[in-house]
Structure formats: structure tokens, C-alpha cells
Amino acid sequence: xxxxxxxxxxxxxxxxxxxxxxxxxxxxxxxxxxxxxxxxxxxxxxxxxxxxxxxxxxxxxxxxxxxxxxxxxxxxxxxxxxxxxxxxxxxxxxxxxxxxxxxxxxxxxxxxxxxxxxxxxxxxxxxxxxxxxxxxxx
Length: 138
Fold this sequence. Notes:
The protein has a single domain (2-102), classed as 3-Layer(aba) Sandwich (Severin). It is built from three helices and seven strands. It has helices at residues 50-63, 84-87, 104-114, and strands at 2-7, 10-13, 21-23, 27-33, 38-44, 72-78, 95-97. The model is unreliable at 131-138 (pLDDT under 50).
């Protein structure tokens, strides 16, 4: 699986350590390649108008190298409408930070210094779940 964030209207591939960390003001592409089928999902954090939603097709085109076939399923998901199948792709959690994306380590340093407030939403499996990470390196 590859995850991209849209920066300057182009997909930027994220390091696997950043998978599952999303920012509310950004757009992400999740590219899941199976043996016989490929799923390309656009996660839209901000509320987009019709023209901006149309642009998400271009981002998916870039990620798939403009391939359009029956072996690729494309889908869009708006923030707050994530279903269990999407959440299950991120076994260490699905976290949405407020604002625009900053470097992952900078965000962690900010949380370590000032703390953070998180909301846990259900359903996640049978119930909501909080994941505690006992050791995080800065």
C-alpha cells in the first residue's frame, strides 16, 4: 500500500511511518495494489466544491499513471465518513490532525512539548479503541 498527500496539486508519496496520520485540511490518495485488482481511494479532509472534487480525479490519474481499466476501482471518501474497511488498512490507528500537514516529526515534537487532545470515535471493530504507544523516539 502507498499513501500520497497532495502538495501543490501533485501527489507526494509518504513514508510508511506516516501511514494512518492525516490532516484535516489536506487531500490524500491511498493506493492499494492486490494481485488481481487495485483500489485507489481519495480521502478528502476539507470540504471541496464540485470543481475541486473533479480535480481529485486528476490526482488519481497521476498515481495510476493514467491507467483506466476494470482492474482499478476508484473511490472518494470525505472526512468523517470512513468505513471499517478503510480504517482496517491502518492497524496502528487512523488519526486526523487539525490543519495543514507538517513534517511528522515536527508534529510529534509539538505534541510531546504541549500535549494533545484526541477524540476517539466508534465503531472501530466492535467498539472504539485507543492505542497507547509506550515508547516513541523523537
